[in-house]
Amino acid sequence: MDDLGRYSRQILFSGIGKEGQVKLLESKVAIVGVGALGTVCANHLARSGVGYIRLIDRDVVDLSNLQRQSLFNEEDVKLNLPKAVAAGKRLNSINSTVTVDAAVTDLNLDNAEELLAGVDVIIDGTDNFMTRYLINDVCVKYGIPWVHGAAVSSRGMFAVIKPGITPCYRCLFPTVPAGRGETCDTIGVLSPITDIIGSFQAMEAIKLLIGAPTSSNLEQIDVWDTSFFSMDTSKGANPQCPSCVNHQFDFLDRSSSLQEAYSSLCGRDTVQIYFRDKRERDLIKLSERLKKNGKVTGNQFLLRFSPNEETSIVVFKDGRVLVHGTNDIVKAKSLYSKYIGN
After folding, report:
1. Is 128 in contact with 81 (CB distance < 8 Å)?
2. Rg of the chain taking only CA atoms, in angstroms
3. C-alpha 313: how far from chain center
């Protein structure tokens, strides 16, 4: 067992104590997305002595990440290290007694159950809705509590979701937003909000691991306006929820109409992304949002966005997307998530 002296100040806190610390040492956590929120959570949990931390991320460290993603440095950028690997190395240097499992992969319906089913708590460090619905389905199916978090611009939110006890994510957000939301790459993000939300997520995860009471609210914070808003979600359960009531796990079901489909177009260095549930895009609104990130052209049928000379993303009015400049589906998903807002 780890030398408890390392955690002496934490053990002195009456809410944790020696018994709670032992529970942490024996716990397993998965963090999905090792970006701004994920690195803050991973740092706190490793220092707190969580025995096993699985880091799941598909991307590599970029210079623009260093403004807010606290486990990375310039050397990681030079080496083009995957985020999960770079974060894992840093965590091992902080606390060598913690087992860190770096999974350099895209979390999807093919691997989600394998990567998530065996842990005690899951932390949402993602930047897109579809992955959150996927996490929710796994958590409901296997009875795993998870901590949702999101941050963009100066705003952030977090909530604790405990299957069978609290409303699930699909109760709170019944439908996948058609616009897919703003992203850090299109409207920016301030590092204090990611630190604050990630720290709250880590604290709620620690409470879950030791069996302490957790927040029953969806907490929202804006650090620029210094505003706080709490929404009590305890009565938000949907009696007809497809996921937690009917156990209809659409985001784990390849045939579901809610799935996104990806295909590499042979010989064209292009990946096509389309949605089985057709949705109409507001191309004018999307164009305005993307103008600050690159060249935007288009007409009434489609929008073409070019963040650089090598890449262009074509968005059709019915929601279908073509990512030109790569035949790598994971890279195309990352570009789509980064700019369009999945």
Report:
1. no
2. 20
3. 23
pLDDT tens by residue, 77-130: 999 899 999 999 999 999 999 999 999 998 989 899 999 999 999 999 998 888
- The answer to whether 46 touches 54, Cβ cutoff 8 Å, is no
What does 41-100 look like in DSSP terms, one character per residue? HHHHHHHHT-SEEEEEE--B--GGGGGT-TT--HHHHHTT-BHHHHHHHHHHHH-TTSEE
Distance of CA 29 to the CA centre of its chain: 14
Say how far apart CA 283 and CA 281 lie, in whole Å. Answer: 6
pLDDT-above-90 percentage for the chain? 69
CB 120 within 8 Å of CB 209: yes
**Whole domain around residue 299: which residue ranges?**
259-339
Distance in angstroms (rounded) separating the CA atoms of residues 301 and 182 = 22
Residue 234 and residue 96 share a domain: yes
Query: Could you tell me if 72 and 118 lie in one domain?
Result: yes
User: What element of type H or E holds 270?
Assistant: strand 270-275
Residues 142 and 27 in one domain: yes
Cβ neighbour number for residue 186 with a 10 Å cutoff: 19
Taking alpha carbons only, the member of 43, 66, 37 closest to residue 195 is 37
Among 42, 119, 44, smallest CA distance to 86 is for 42
For residue range 186-196, list pLDDT tens digits in order: 789 999 999 99
Q: Side chain identity at 71, as an amino acid letter?
A: L
Grouping H, G, I as helix, E, B as strand and the rest as coil, residue 145 is coil
**Cβ-proximal residues to 75 (8 Å cutoff; 6+ apart), any chain:** none
Compute the mean pLDDT over every residue in the chain, rounded to the nearest whole number: 92
Q: Is the pLDDT of residue 1 over 50?
A: no
In terms of domains, do 210 and 263 share one? no
pTM for the predicted model, two decimal places? 0.86
Indicate the DSSP class of residue 179.
S
Percentage of the chain beyond pLDDT 70 is 96
| Cα 189 to chain centroid, rounded | 15
CATH number of the domain to which 137 belongs: 3.40.50.720
User: Cα separations (Å) of 241 from 218, 235, 272, 313?
Assistant: 18, 13, 31, 35
Reported as type and span, the H/E element at residue 169 is helix 169-172
Query: 19 is written with which tokens?
Result: 């018994």
